[in-house]
Amino acid sequence: MSLTPPTFLTVELCQTAFNNLFSLYYSSDDHDHSEEDGGGHEGHVHAGVTCEDDPDKQYSKPIHIAAVFIILGVSLLGTIIPILATHIKQLRIPRYAIIVGKSIGIGVVLSCAFIHMLLPAVISLTSECLPESWHEGYEAYPYLFALLAGIAMQFIDFVVLQYLTLKESKKHSNDNISLHDVHTPGGDVHTPCGDETSKSHSHSHGPSGAHGSHVHGGLLMDPAALKTIEAYLLEFGITVHSVFIGLAVGVVDDSTLKALLVALAFHQFFEGVALGSRISDAKLTSHWHEALLASIFAVSAPIGIAIGVGVASSLNVNGPTYLIVQGVFDSVCAGILLYIGFSLMIKDFPEDMEELCKGKKYEYFLRAGLFIGLWVGAAMMAFIGKYL
Fold this sequence. Notes:
Blueprint: H1 11-29, E1 45-46, E2 49-50, H2 61-87, H3 95-125, H4 132-137, H5 141-180, H6 195-198, E3 201-205, E4 211-216, H7 223-251, H8 254-282, H9 287-311, H10 320-357, H11 363-384
Antiparallel strand pairs: 1-2, 3-4
């Protein structure tokens, strides 16, 4: 007796039946259309995500206004601690402890880029509340914007460094010209057309043959110039990101705010520490300059919260316009911070380790401390990312 299945139970028929059951289940539960909209986009609920704001949420302005000042104080505190520790003798801490803090800051920057910026960008730019045309056009927008931002930062970094190098070369070339007419007993006279000058390398030798002066007109870059650029780029990335975080916090209901406020306070504090470390390491020429950069970051999230409070009744954070703007900016900021974070980890981290650990007593423990600092910084921001 043959056990062949009935001819009507074909693979195509079974697959069709399964697809019909699947679509029937999700069309009834996860894709509700309001009768008033006639099937329009405003009444959609996509896989449990409501695309319109809840008109019945409990919203208290005094609590949100208090959050502005709380976040302002925490952000400012985190930023100024590393700066004050550099300038005030009573707050001076050992060099090794400062570098451990700097390592923590590197971990914070990298974790913030991946978890606090790139992930929200992916969620925003892949939301089902966006138009169908957005999804059909390209699926990797958040990664594309982050990639372009990283490439742009590398190009800007290169151009600025070339400009500063050329400026420094011209400055020292002028100094060389003023030395060409100086002749010391037993020394050499370098003319403007000499080979030495063409190499931007001039000497003034004394009687004993020792170098009285030694000026190079080539690559004379102050390391602080590069660190200043990194400080500016980091400032831009986390400041823009903080404005959007604050904006989101400013429009949430009271119950959500209580949980977000604690997470945002830690978020801003550790980001402030990372930024303050870069500002102090840049050795800016003016204390007012340092105060300005610290203040800009400190007020970024409070400004976002204040804007959110002002537009809470009209802004829909699940609307297409907000999602696209937030997603694009978060992607760009993620690319900036990834470039900065990996640059610091590849360049500054090994240099600091060699300077402070090589040949010292307990060398391996000192090296381990820097690695642990890096890991702890990344872990703290990753944990906060669970709530914010």
